[in-house]
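Quick start: what a row looks like.
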Amino acid sequence: MQIATKDRTAVSMVKEALDKAKRCKNYNIFVSLNEEAAIKRAEEIDAKIAKGEDAGRLAGVPYALKDNFLSREGATTASSKILEPFKSPITSTTVKKLEAEGAIMIGRTNMDSFAHGSSTENSYFGPTLNAYDETRVAGGSSGGSAVAVAKGIVQFATGTDTGGSIRQPASFNGVFGFKPTYGTISRYGVVAMASSTDCIGFFANSASDIDLLMQICSGQDPYDMTTLPDYYNESEQAVSGDLSRQRERRIGSSPVTTGRATGAPDIAAPVRIGIIKDFDLSKIDKNIKDAFDKKIAELKESGYEIVELDMPALKYALAVYYIVVPAEISSNLSRHDGVRYGYRSKDAKSLEEVYSFSRNLGFMPENKRRIMIGNFVLSSGFYDAYYLKAQKARTLIIKEYENAFKKCDFILTPVSPNPAFKLGEKVNDPISMYLEDVMSVPLNLAGVPGLAIPVGRTEPTDTAKEGLPIGLQIVGPRRSDKALLEFASKITKREGK
């Protein structure tokens, strides 16, 4: 991470980032820029540096904030009409921690409204364009954040991942995107989508940069009862139940640490990589399958052991996800009623019309679709048949991951069955759009961490002469986040533009 110094000031870094953001205006990356406040903050950082004071581990680093993170600076809209004028009275825990270390927010990034989508086409402000092909989607829901990093505007950006919303746009735009173990980073001050699967994470240009962000932002928060104790910085991170086996393993002649706390004993690098047999790779894009096969071959050549895994319950993951998550969405979005804050219809003449008119105009079509699905599966007579059964199936998926990590250290899979698709190609076909999540949603249901890594490009296309980015994801057991990132640093290199 390049921080500010006396020679390269925070003000110059912020102005450069803002200038790049303006030059990339046609990509529709930002819904708002934080220009005046960012420059003022940069001047404060430079003053600290000039005095020899500690300005933080992220001193002067400009970053982009996904538009569902609450902050007192600017308006938080979640890229929706119903929240368009909303000024937050609070600041999210993540933003507080980043800015306490000197990071400077230059603007809010575009996203699918309320994070409902896989393409950023479901935004009230219009779609964000892919960083490598302006005729294709950026992915979603954190498309703006992914493109902000891919275009070199900022060194990192925040994101949320409820079913792949960090990993998929990272894959589509050739950057690293990390979804931590559920509960590792506080959700306080982030507009809720589905509270049992929402995770806060980051986009960056390397796994080591994400590691630094995780050191800063992880930890228990009294404002979020689902947060875990700070295992990331303080406790040992085992990547399987058999530590003695790992201590004896070596790659070549050099043991590599896997995320031990300072002073804790080192263990050798994980050497067993799981491949899920139940994912039918014959049905995914040929470019992605070839990239996946190539990475497996590289791992084998480097001495890693490849283990095939039977995980039959994963075939139910997409169906489970689109029952459990809409149910939670319908509950979380009930607070947006046009009464207390946000958009209110001027045509309403009764309380009932305030609700119906405000929601009809304020929500995007995908928001309405998920609310209706959620209300249906929670309704009397259908709760047991759908929601309760889905929760039981979710438990089976969690157990399958637990059993899988008794046989391997990490799992490698594609992020998505396809590279970035054309704008408008799937927007009127929700089933086809949902199928893009088939390989990403199981991690959120199980609460395990996953990192999207860039691994190459597709064959050239008419509109992308150098090809489209391809990403794979590395999956680890719960609380193996630091080990996963260190492992990723060992086996990856930044794919050049």
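That is the whole record. The chain has a mean pLDDT of 92. Residues 383-404 form the longest helix (22 residues).
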